[in-house]
Design goal:
alpha/beta, seven-stranded mixed beta sheet
């Protein structure tokens, strides 16, 4: 007999268990609730969004909150709303909570609490899962207080489990990002080394610029700036002050080096480094404080050996297939920031504005596998002109294709029935998943948005050739249509970039796309 508290020995069984009630867990829980799926969300804390109660340490998010736009369509407005979750009622929305471009993290926790109350009723707070084991073809989860839950499908949406600590000799002498003092006065007149060159490192360093004697940021690789990489997780423009101070010779700086050893030297620390861009030059530097800002990792300790997921990226997050399922454990899926292995440092999968769409697709794939609901599609006109209109309507409207550029695509599969050509239109699929699923078909198209990949010496002085024949040279985000034959790219058409992201000009967009589709 199943009991509500799961303590009768047999436990509480559900088709789906979602682990974690952060943004990803709530988003998936909302989709499962709307679909009437049998599920429960387990959260160890007493409220949703625990990560945002602690991080970022200086309490300003880097996710943009563009409240004022020239668009009225709610779908298009989501392109610039990086913090709202999706729901059947399209409420609540994050911009109703804050007008700040970079919102305060406390606003996020308030928003998530309201979203959970409105859309995700099946959350068990205070359910600290300490052990996960196989149970037949499913899973058995045990909590710290002895409750037992079983499920056919487990989706882990726990987010980061703790800091990633690199294997550096003497790293124990470094303070962690998670615990370093926040008051800049603690660093007045001191020499500070920050290990890492990501956003948490720059977040930590920026308040110290007018207090510390010198601040160095160190990692083996050059700083990745978001305006170069187009990845929202790379270093953002608001942290440019430290880079300014480096080139203006204020003694603050960024170092490309390996940290060989950290050791005490009286009241300071001696740090031995090897420069990675200076032919192996070595140096020994002295600092008063060393701070580790090297990111986070997944906590895989609850998993038993019979279902321990394979990890990648130095153990930071799990290896997954194109459907976000564990690469080595059947029935185990990942959601949210943990599910970024397929597009690491590329699209927006680690962030709300990206994974909200990934999870909408995941919910459909789970319903197909476990609930027998075929993956949704629409039959559209196969004529080249009408098909082009359908594609342009989607790319001009979809916020999923916009935020998940070069990752999620619409798929148009050509089939023949009774001598007629039919086109089945699937929305928002990972392109690698689409290739795996439809690779045996003779002919299908993908539609997505892509950045130009040409290298430019100065990204603010890019010369353009605004003619359709050179659309493949577009530097900004623009539509790309690919024709696949038996899983291989047979042809590709770029459409010219547009300042306002409106791809409807007859000469630049409509006719070039129609001509491409006629070639089949």
């Amino acid at each position: 007999m199943v009991t509500a508290d799961g303590k009768d020995g047999t436990g509480e069984h559900h088709r789906y268990v979602v682990l974690g009630a952060g943004p990803a867990g709530l988003q998936l829980g909302c989709f499962l609730t709307a679909a009437g799926a049998d599920h429960v969300v387990l959260e160890r804390e007493d409220a949703p969004g625990g990560f945002f109660r602690r991080y970022p340490r200086h309490r300003r998010l880097i996710s943009l909150n563009k409240v004022h736009t020239i668009e009225e369509d709610p779908e298009i407005r989501l392109r610039w709303d990086w913090n709202s979750l999706l729901s059947p009622t399209a409420r609540p929305l994050f911009p109703d909570y804050s007008g700040d471009w970079f919102p305060h993290a406390d606003t996020m926790t308030a928003y998530l609490e309201d979203f959970q109350r409105a859309h995700v009723p099946h959350v068990r707070f205070g359910a600290d899962v300490t052990e996960i084991r196989r149970d037949g073809g499913g899973f058995r989860l045990t909590t710290a207080d002895g409750r037992l839950f079983t499920c056919d499908c487990l989706i882990v949406a726990t987010g980061w489990g703790g800091p990633y600590v690199p294997a550096v000799k003497g790293i124990e002498y470094a303070q962690g990002y998670e615990s370093a003092p926040l008051d800049p006065e603690a660093y007045r007149g001191k020499r500070v080394l920050i290990i890492g060159k990501g956003n948490s490192a720059f977040e930590t360093a920026t308040p110290l610029l007018d207090h510390a004697a010198l601040v160095h940021l160190a990692s083996p690789h050059p700083t990745r700036l978001a305006w170069h990489s187009k990845h929202p997780g790379d270093v953002r423009g608001q942290y440019g002050a430290l880079l300014d101070s480096y080139w203006f010779k204020t003694l603050h700086g960024v170092l490309e080096c390996e940290i060989d050893e950290i050791r005490p030297a009286g009241d300071a620390y001696r740090v031995d480094i090897t420069y990675t861009l200076a032919e192996g030059e070595r140096e020994s530097l002295e600092y008063d404080t060393v701070i580790r800002c090297t990111g986070f990792r997944m906590d895989d300790t609850p998993f038993g050996e019979d279902c321990r997921p394979e990890l990648v990226a130095s153990g930071r997050f799990p290896a997954t297939g194109p459907d976000w399922q564990s690469a080595n454990v059947d029935g185990l899926y990942f959601a949210g920031t943990l599910a970024q292995a397929r597009d690491t440092k590329h699209a927006a999968s680690p962030f709300i504005d990206g994974f909200r769409y990934n999870l909408r697709t995941l919910a459909r794939l789970l319903a197909e596998r476990y609930d027998g609901r075929p993956l949704e599609y629409a039959v559209v006109d196969a004529g080249p002109d009408r098909l082009a209109d359908t594609m342009l309507d989607r790319v001009n409207w979809s916020s999923a294709l916009w935020t998940q550029f070069e990752y999620l695509v619409d798929v148009f599969v050509l089939d023949t029935a009774d001598g007629r050509v039919l086109v089945r239109h699937y929305e928002d699929l990972p392109e690698d998943y689409a290739v795996a699923r439809f690779g045996d078909r003779e002919h299908f198209y993908t539609l997505g948005l892509r950045w130009g990949r040409q290298e430019h010496a100065d990204i603010f002085a890019i010369r353009r050739s605004p003619v359709p024949e050179r659309a493949h040279e577009s530097a900004f985000l623009h539509p790309v249509i690919r024709r696949y034959r038996h899983g291989e790219i047979a042809a590709e058409r770029h459409l010219l970039e547009d300042l306002r992201a409106q791809w409807r000009r007859p000469d630049r967009h409509v006719e070039p796309l129609r001509a491409f589709l006629r070639e089949r």
